[in-house]
Amino acid sequence: KYIGIVKEPNFETRICFLPKEVSLVTKQLELEVIIEAGLGEALGISDKDYETAGARIHNRDFILENSDYVLSINDFHDLNLDGKSKNIIGIFNMLFYPERVEKYLEKNTSVFSLDLLPRTTLAQSMDVLSSMASLAGYKAVLKATSHYSGSLPMFTTAAGTLNPAKVLILGAGVAGLQAIATAKRLGAVVEVFDVRKSSAEEVSSLGARFIEVEGYEEEKNAGGYAIEQSEEYLDKQKKLIQSRISIANIVISTANIPGKKAPILIDKQALDAMLPGSVIIDLAAEQGGNCELTQNQKTIIYNNVTIIGDSNLTREMSQSASQLLSANYYNFLKHLINSANEDDVIIKGCQVVSNGKISHPQLINKFE
Ligand code: NAD
Questions:
Q1: What is the 3 state secondary structure string of the chain?
Q2: Which of the four pLDDT bands, split at 50, 70 and 90, describes residue 349?
Q3: What are 23-56's pLDDT values in tens digits?
Q4: Sorting pLDDT into bands at 50, 70 and 90, what band is 63?
Q5: Which positions are annotated as active-site residues?
Q6: Averaged over 83-103, what is the pLDDT?
Q7: Could you tell me which residue ranges the Alanine dehydrogenase/pyridine nucleotide transhydrogenase N-terminal domain spans (predicted)?
Q8: 333 lines ligand 1 (CB under 6 A)
């Protein structure tokens, strides 16, 4: 059987399968890997490196027509779906972009979207969202420091003392926690807000201050994710954020609700209260952003506040991101190939299409 990997679109700097994992697949899973010439270019990995690891180079059409498993990061349109049956594995965010599923329907195809893997201990080694969020949280702080014209740590000099920067983090999930750790290491004073009270302990253990709003509705069946809140709660939350944001130098916002538009936590009023020269990095930009003025993949300046909307900061860390993705993809592939159990929760959890039919309950809901 063939595992096929073709080049990603031009905007993508990451690669989902590296020579190390090619070698593991050929030796341990006894499958053949076929790749498009130049797959590793963005990272300086040559075709020869892939061949040494056991892959064969083919043209794109051959790979897309003949692979039993096709691996990619981004959704793509030139797959030949009329040929033999295929398993497509990627990160397609189909709960937010349900139209992406349409081309696979009524075809001999199964699709697995790794952003939907259950967030359980067993699935941790495949969890692409956690690997990417962790790197993005780190990079968000570094990026903010290069746009902020002050220092993060306190400086005591003969000429006087500079106060440490104040960093406000909205959303203490995987990205938020890594952003806290990074900002603390650089000497900033960090405040954090999340609707999930359960994150308060993690926040304090990293040395940051947790700020909270009373009245959050928890949902036991939400798999540890946040859910949408009442108008009254959102109103109280906006007021609290406005008061804290008015003294912040850097804001990293990461608040997401799976498959839904991201909650607006920073409205125009809050922006108007911000200090001149402050910087917002909005990691929720792709799902609409946490700041009212965020534009995805753009940097804008409003009233002396820089607002950077980017949910794919890991593209600026392509080496580390590809290493983690490649390990995640390999672990998932191994699990998929070795699992004899049809009701496996990991596989079912991220399978969006089964033999040409939508199989994920949340995606079925989107089409009803
Ligand atoms: P996410 O990207 O969906 O959201 C980021 C954070 O934003 C979350 O902490 C969420 O509570 C918060 N948020 C949502 N709405 C908000 C609002 N209105 N105001 C403020 N904050 C808001 O989350 P994630 O980083 O993917 O993590 C989701 C959950 O999964 C967390 O509970 C995390 O601890 C858990 N998790 C578990 C594992 C595991 O292996 N067991 C692995 C990774 C994550």
A1: CEEEECCCCCCCCCCCCCHHHHHHHHHHHCCEEEEECCCCHHHCCCHHHHHHHCCEEECHHHHHHHCCEEECCCCCCCCCCCCCCEEEEECCCCCCCHHHHHHHCCCCEEEEEHHHCCCCCCCHHHCHHHHHHHHHHHHHHHHHHHHCCCCCCCEEECCEEECCCEEEEECCCHHHHHHHHHHHHCCCEEEEECCCHHHHHHHHHCCCEEECCCCCCCCHHHCCCCCCCCHHHHHHHHHHHHHHHCCCCEEEECCCCCCCCCCCCECHHHHHCCCCCCEEEECCHHHCCCECCCCCCEEEEECCEEEEECCCHHHHHHHHHHHHHHHHHHHHHHHHHHCCCCCCHHHHHHEEEECCEECCHHHHHHCC
A2: very high
A3: 999 998 889 999 999 999 999 999 999 999 999 9
A4: very high
A5: 119, 124, 127, 130, 225
A6: 93
A7: 4-136
A8: no
Q: Tell the residue nearest (CA) to atom 36 of ligand 1.
A: 119
Q: Is the CB of 202 under 6 A from ligand 1?
A: no
Q: What digits encode the pLDDT tens for the residues 73-91?
A: 999 888 888 878 899 999 9
Looking at residues 324-340, what average pLDDT do you find?
A: 95
ipTM for the complex shown: 0.95
User: Is residue 319 packed enough to be buried (19+ CB in 10 Å), middle (13-18) or exposed (0-12)?
Assistant: middle
Q: Whose CA is nearest to atom 9 of ligand 1?
A: 173
**Is the beta carbon of 224 within 6 A of some atom in ligand 1?**
yes
Among protein residues, the one with the nearest Cα to ligand 1's atom 33 is 173
CA of 172 to the centre of ligand 1 (A): 7
Measured from the Cα of 226, ligand 1's closest atom is: 11
Distance 230 CA to ligand 1 centre (A): 19
Lowest mean per-residue pLDDT among 227-236, 256-265, 266-275:
227-236
- The residues near 276 (Cβ < 8 Å, ≥ 6 apart) are 303, 304, 305
302 lines ligand 1 (CB under 6 A): no
Q: Which atom of ligand 1 is nearest to the CA of 284?
A: 2
Chain mean pLDDT for the chain: 94
What pLDDT was estimated at residue 218?
67
